[in-house]
Amino acid sequence: MPTTLDTSRRERTINLGAGPSSLPTPVLLEAAQGIVDFGGSGMGLTELSHRSATFQRVLSAAEADLRSLLAVPDDYAVLFMQGGGTEQFSATALNLLAAHAVAHPDYVAQHPAGPPCDYAVSGSWTAKAMSEAKRLGANARAVFDARKLPGADGRFGAIPPVAEWQLSAAEEKPAMLYYCDNETVDGVEYASPGFPIAELPQAYRESVPLVADCSSNILSRPIDVAAHAIVFFGAQKNVGPAGVTVVIVRRSLIAEHPDKGVAHGGPRIPTTLVYKQHADNGSLYNTPPMFAIYASGLVFADLLRNRGGVTGAASRADMKSGAVYDVIASSNGLFQPTVRQADVRSRMNICFRVCGADGAPSEARETAFVARCKEAGIEQVKGHRSVGGIRTSLYNAVTPEQTLVLVDVMKAFVKEMQEQK
Ligand SMILES: Cc1ncc(COP(=O)(O)O)c(C=O)c1O
After folding, report:
1. Nearest C-alpha to atom 16 of ligand 1 is from which residue?
2. What is residue 385's predicted lDDT score, i.e. its pLDDT?
3. For 134-159, what is the mean pLDDT?
4. Which residues are catalytic?
5. Which of 60, 171, 327, 404 has minimal CB crowding within 10 Å?
6. Which of 185, 195, 211, 215 to mutate for ligand 1's pocket (most ligand atoms within 8 Å of CB)?
7. For residue 266, what pLDDT band results from cuts at 50, 70 and 90?
8. Which residue's alpha carbon is at the smallest distance from atom 15 of ligand 1?
9. Are 249 and 275 in contact (CB under 8 A)?
10. What number does the ligand 1 atom closest to the CA of 182 have?
11. At residue 255, does pLDDT exceed 90?
12. Does the structure show a pLDDT above 70 at 115?
C-alpha cells in the first residue's frame, strides 16, 4: 500500500478544463491526508459525524475565511448547500418569490401573473436559469437576450449598455434581477469591476433584489456583496470539488415562513431548497457534502493566508488572461476570439477559434492546436460543444508559469502556421 502520493505526472500536466478544474496541489495533498486520518483522530473527515465538534470547526473555519475573503457583511447568511448551480436556478426564484408573496400579500390578487423576475441573458447559464424560472411558473422576463442583438446571429458574445435594457418598472415590484457574472460556456464576463449596479435606475436599484451567479469567477475579483440580495456559486471552478454550492443571502430576504407565501400566490418550496432551513440550522439541516466543504475551506485558507486574498487572485487573473489575449491579438487573425465585444471577454474562460488562411474557423487547425497543447502537457482545451473552437480556462489554481507555457505554445503555433503558407 503506498504511503506517499505520486504528484510527478500532475506536476507535468497543465489542466485548463472549464470545470471541474484544477485545484492547488498542496490543498489536495492536505485533503488526501484528511480523508484518511483527520487531525490524528484515526478517522477520515468523511467518516466523522457531521454534527461532531470536529466537523463543526471545519465548517465554521470555512465560513469565517470566506467571509474575510469577500468581506461578507454580518447581515448576510452563508449557506453551504448541495444541488449545484442548477439547483440555485430554482432556489433563487422560489425563495425570492416566497419572500415577495409574504411581503406583498395582495400582489397576486391584483397581478395574477405574479411579480416580474428580470434576467440579464448574457450567456447559456442565464438562459437556463430563466427557462427554469419560467418552468416553475415565474413571470420571467429577459431584460436583454444577447443572442438577439444586432449582428449576434443567434450567438452570445456582447452585453448591451444598461440604457438599452428592458428593465421592468420599479413600480411593478420585480421579485429580482438575475445575472451571471461570468458565462463559462460562452466566455462572457461583465467588464471589471463587475456588473454595472451603479448604472441601474435609482428606484430600481434600491428596491429590486439583485442575484448573481458567480460559479465560475468567484474569488477572482472583489464583489460588492452588500449590493446584492444573493450571491451564489458552485464550488467546482475556483473553490473546490463539486458537491457544495455556497449561497450568500441577505438575511432580511430569507422568508421567515415561506409556506405563508403560498396563500398569496407564492410557491411551496421543497424543504432542501428553503434558505431558512439552512440558515436556521447552520448548513446542517441535513447531512452536508462534508468533503467538498472541507476541501473548499482549505482553498479559502490557502488563498487568504498564502496567496494575497481576492486582490492577489485578481491581479494574477488580469495578468494571465492579458498574456493570452495579447497573443490572440498579435496572431494576424490565426486566433479569433468568439466574444465580439472586447471589454466583456472573460478573464476565466478564454474562447477562440483557430482560423485557416481564408480567415474562417478551421477544425483541422483546431485539432492540430489541441495536439500541440497536449504535447506540452496542456489538457482540456477543446471548446464547449455549443460554441466549438478552443476554450482555455485560467481559474485561480492555474499558475502564471503554467499560463506562460500556453502562451509559448500559442506563439509557436502562430509561427508554424505562418511557415505553412
Ligand atoms: C456559471 C455557471 N452557472 C451554473 C452552472 C451549473 O452548475 P452545476 O453543474 O453545478 O449545476 C455552471 C456549470 O458549469 C456554471 O458555469
Report:
1. 184
2. 87
3. 97
4. 125, 213, 237
5. 171
6. 215
7. confident
8. 215
9. yes
10. 1
11. no
12. yes
Residue 2 pLDDT: 59
Residue spans of the domains in the chain: they are 55-300, 309-420
Instruction: For residue 100, name the pLDDT band (cuts at 50, 70, 90).
Output: very high
243 lines ligand 1 (CB under 6 A): no
Same topology between domain 55-300 and domain 309-420: no
Binding site membership of 186 for ligand 1 (Cβ less than 6 Å): no
Ligand 1 contact, 86 CB (< 6 A): yes
pLDDT, tens digit, 9 for 90 and up, residues 348-359? 999 999 999 999
Ligand 1 centroid to Cα of residue 397, in Å, is 18
Q: Which of 151, 175, 149, 181 is nearest to 164 (CA)?
A: 149
pLDDT level of residue 1 (50, 70, 90 thresholds): low
132 lines ligand 1 (CB under 6 A): no
- Percentage above 90 pLDDT, the chain: 94
CATH topology (fold) of 55-300: Aspartate Aminotransferase; domain 2 (3.40.640)
Q: How far away, in angstroms, is 61 Cα from ligand 1 center? A: 25
pLDDT at 184: 98
Distance 84 CA to ligand 1 centre (A): 7
Instruction: Report the residue among 125, 231, 273 best suited for mutation to probe ligand 1: largest number of ligand atoms under 8 A from its CB.
Output: 125
| CATH superfamily placement of domain 309-420 | Aspartate Aminotransferase, domain 1 (3.90.1150.10)
Q: Please indicate whether residue 238, judged by its CB atom, sits closer than 6 Å to ligand 1.
A: no
Residue 87 alpha carbon to ligand 1 centre in Å: 9
Instruction: Give me the mean pLDDT over the 375-381 stretch.
Output: 97
